[in-house]
Amino acid sequence: MKRYAGFKLLIVDDHAHNLFTLRTLVERYMDVEILEATSGQQALDIAVREPGIDLVILDVQMPEMDGFQTASMLKIRKKTKDIPIIFLTAAFKTEEFQLKGYEVGGVDYLLKPIDDNQLLNKISTYFRLIEKERELNKILEQKVAERTAELAAAKQHLENIITYMGEALLVLNPEGEIESVNPAACKMLDYSEADLLRMSIGDVFEEEAEEQAGAFFGTWLEALIRTGALSRIEASFIAKDGRRVPILFSRTAVKDSTGNISHIICIAKDMTGYIRDMDAVQNAS
224: pLDDT confidence band, cut at 50, 70 and 90? Predict the structure, then answer.
């Protein structure tokens, strides 16, 4: 049974009868597409024009541009540099020429007269390697696609949590500037997201203690550097219309690989209803 359907082989020789012999031999045992060139320049033109050539069988002794020159030109072109090349020669049999063949990018160097079984085995070896590489690439692509889908699903899940959580979420840079917010923060402060992203946390936040006004962010940083998080405190958001919205507020530092704070995550719970209920209880008593 013939194998390697879908593979593409380019054979290059300046003698037509050599091309016919090679073609006949390969077609007898393999179901591959065979392209032919009778010169180095024609081989270059075909290799650049035809997509997906899997292997080149290249005669060394050719006029104008020999096999070594042809191989060198194939290897410097992005489209053809990875195509394996098997050299065939009847004249250049010394070890020096064989080494030169490998130096210019050949993967094998075979001598004429051709040993049919040896040549077929060489061709089969490289086609099997290509098959294996393609199978591995498919597996890798599948794993990458699966991992990408998993990450996308996890990202979407996290975004849904952030979007629909009842607490306000603000992410600050180490200078206290707001870099991202969730819809609950926009609703609580009555600002659009675009407006908030141009602000500092001090524009929309105040702590209860009077003596901390204007200096609280520096205090945060010192504490966050030491502990990484600060326990929840009672404070207020300053809404767009100037209203003070009572909140329960917590801060957590996100540190980079060097241990420096890269972001500060702030979460605020609206305590308006809770405060009102507590006032009612106290008034009743």
Answer: low
* Structure token pair of residue 154: 């996890």
- Omega cis (within 30) before 113: yes
Name every residue whose Cβ is closer than 8 Å to that of residue 271 and which is 6 or more positions away in sequence. Answer: 234, 246, 247, 248
Q: DSSP for 5-50?
A: TT-EEEEE-S-HHHHHHHHHHHHHHB--EEEEESSHHHHHHHHHHS
Beta-strand (E) ranges in 41-196?
55-59, 85-89, 106-111, 168-172, 178-181
CA–CA gap between residue 119 and residue 270 (Å, rounded): 79
Which pLDDT score is estimated for 213? 42
Mean pLDDT of 47-65: 91
What's this model's pTM, rounded to 2 decimal places? Answer: 0.59
